[in-house]
Amino acid sequence: MTETKPSVLFVCVHNAGRSQMAAGFLRDIAGDRIEVRSAGSMPADQINPTAVAAMAELGIDITAEQPKVLTTEAVQASDVVITMGCGDACPFFPGKRYEDWKLDDPAGQGIDAVRPIRDDIQARIQQLVSELV
After folding, report:
1. The whole model's pTM is what?
2. How far is Cα 41 from Cα 69, in angstroms, rounded to an integer?
Protein backbone atom coordinates (compact mmCIF):
# COMPACT_ATOMS: atom_id res chain seq x y z
CA MET A 1 0.00 0.00 0.00
CA THR A 2 1.00 3.62 -0.30
CA GLU A 3 2.12 5.92 2.52
CA THR A 4 -1.44 7.07 3.09
CA LYS A 5 -3.81 4.79 4.93
CA PRO A 6 -6.50 3.09 2.85
CA SER A 7 -10.11 4.13 3.27
CA VAL A 8 -13.17 1.90 3.13
CA LEU A 9 -16.79 2.94 2.59
CA PHE A 10 -19.60 0.58 3.59
CA VAL A 11 -22.93 1.22 1.88
CA CYS A 12 -26.34 -0.29 2.51
CA VAL A 13 -29.81 1.12 1.96
CA HIS A 14 -30.60 2.40 5.46
CA ASN A 15 -27.06 2.60 6.97
CA ALA A 16 -28.63 1.22 10.13
CA GLY A 17 -27.50 -2.42 10.37
CA ARG A 18 -25.06 -4.18 8.06
CA SER A 19 -22.91 -1.20 7.12
CA GLN A 20 -22.81 0.02 10.72
CA MET A 21 -21.75 -3.40 12.01
CA ALA A 22 -19.07 -3.61 9.30
CA ALA A 23 -17.76 -0.15 10.18
CA GLY A 24 -17.71 -1.06 13.87
CA PHE A 25 -15.73 -4.23 13.20
CA LEU A 26 -13.28 -2.44 10.91
CA ARG A 27 -12.62 0.28 13.51
CA ASP A 28 -12.19 -2.38 16.19
CA ILE A 29 -9.88 -4.67 14.19
CA ALA A 30 -7.84 -2.16 12.17
CA GLY A 31 -7.72 0.69 14.67
CA ASP A 32 -6.35 3.80 12.99
CA ARG A 33 -4.65 1.89 10.16
CA ILE A 34 -7.73 2.18 7.90
CA GLU A 35 -10.10 5.12 7.49
CA VAL A 36 -13.71 3.98 7.90
CA ARG A 37 -16.87 5.46 6.41
CA SER A 38 -20.43 4.20 6.14
CA ALA A 39 -23.52 5.58 4.44
CA GLY A 40 -26.91 4.67 3.05
CA SER A 41 -28.84 5.45 -0.11
CA MET A 42 -31.97 6.05 2.02
CA PRO A 43 -30.69 6.44 5.61
CA ALA A 44 -32.92 5.42 8.50
CA ASP A 45 -33.67 7.67 11.48
CA GLN A 46 -31.52 5.59 13.83
CA ILE A 47 -29.28 2.55 13.99
CA ASN A 48 -31.02 -0.82 14.28
CA PRO A 49 -31.11 -1.52 18.06
CA THR A 50 -30.75 -5.26 17.43
CA ALA A 51 -27.53 -4.62 15.47
CA VAL A 52 -26.31 -2.49 18.39
CA ALA A 53 -27.13 -5.32 20.81
CA ALA A 54 -25.42 -7.95 18.64
CA MET A 55 -22.24 -5.86 18.46
CA ALA A 56 -22.34 -5.15 22.20
CA GLU A 57 -22.23 -8.92 22.80
CA LEU A 58 -18.73 -8.82 21.30
CA GLY A 59 -17.70 -5.69 23.21
CA ILE A 60 -18.07 -3.29 20.27
CA ASP A 61 -20.10 -0.16 20.98
CA ILE A 62 -21.79 1.43 17.95
CA THR A 63 -24.41 3.37 19.93
CA ALA A 64 -22.90 6.76 19.06
CA GLU A 65 -23.16 6.18 15.29
CA GLN A 66 -25.89 7.77 13.19
CA PRO A 67 -27.12 6.75 9.72
CA LYS A 68 -25.62 9.05 7.08
CA VAL A 69 -26.65 9.80 3.52
CA LEU A 70 -24.47 8.41 0.74
CA THR A 71 -22.64 11.19 -1.09
CA THR A 72 -20.60 11.19 -4.27
CA GLU A 73 -17.78 12.77 -2.26
CA ALA A 74 -17.68 9.84 0.18
CA VAL A 75 -17.31 7.40 -2.72
CA GLN A 76 -14.63 9.51 -4.41
CA ALA A 77 -12.65 9.75 -1.14
CA SER A 78 -12.67 5.98 -0.58
CA ASP A 79 -10.27 3.36 -1.94
CA VAL A 80 -12.64 0.43 -1.34
CA VAL A 81 -16.43 0.64 -1.64
CA ILE A 82 -18.35 -2.28 -0.17
CA THR A 83 -22.04 -2.41 -0.99
CA MET A 84 -24.58 -4.47 0.90
CA GLY A 85 -27.77 -4.62 -1.09
CA CYS A 86 -28.08 -1.03 -2.32
CA GLY A 87 -27.89 -2.04 -5.97
CA ASP A 88 -27.90 0.73 -8.56
CA ALA A 89 -28.17 3.49 -5.92
CA CYS A 90 -24.41 3.32 -5.39
CA PRO A 91 -22.38 5.68 -7.58
CA PHE A 92 -19.57 4.08 -9.57
CA PHE A 93 -16.17 5.62 -10.20
CA PRO A 94 -13.47 3.95 -12.29
CA GLY A 95 -10.33 3.01 -10.40
CA LYS A 96 -12.07 2.14 -7.13
CA ARG A 97 -12.22 -1.35 -5.71
CA TYR A 98 -15.84 -2.42 -5.43
CA GLU A 99 -17.20 -5.44 -3.60
CA ASP A 100 -20.84 -6.42 -3.17
CA TRP A 101 -21.40 -8.45 -0.02
CA LYS A 102 -24.58 -10.51 -0.20
CA LEU A 103 -25.87 -10.30 3.36
CA ASP A 104 -29.34 -10.69 4.81
CA ASP A 105 -30.87 -7.45 6.05
CA PRO A 106 -31.10 -7.43 9.86
CA ALA A 107 -34.02 -4.94 9.79
CA GLY A 108 -36.97 -6.33 11.71
CA GLN A 109 -35.03 -9.45 12.73
CA GLY A 110 -34.53 -10.74 16.25
CA ILE A 111 -31.11 -11.16 17.86
CA ASP A 112 -30.92 -14.86 16.93
CA ALA A 113 -31.23 -13.94 13.24
CA VAL A 114 -28.81 -11.01 13.49
CA ARG A 115 -25.93 -12.94 15.14
CA PRO A 116 -25.10 -15.03 12.01
CA ILE A 117 -25.17 -11.85 9.87
CA ARG A 118 -22.85 -10.17 12.38
CA ASP A 119 -20.50 -13.15 12.42
CA ASP A 120 -20.41 -13.27 8.60
CA ILE A 121 -19.54 -9.56 8.52
CA GLN A 122 -16.80 -10.07 11.14
CA ALA A 123 -15.15 -12.82 9.06
CA ARG A 124 -15.29 -10.66 5.92
CA ILE A 125 -13.77 -7.70 7.79
CA GLN A 126 -10.90 -9.84 9.10
CA GLN A 127 -10.17 -10.91 5.52
CA LEU A 128 -10.40 -7.32 4.27
CA VAL A 129 -7.98 -6.06 6.94
CA SER A 130 -5.47 -8.77 6.03
CA GLU A 131 -5.62 -7.59 2.41
CA LEU A 132 -5.33 -3.85 3.16
CA VAL A 133 -2.71 -3.63 5.92
Report:
1. 0.94
2. 6
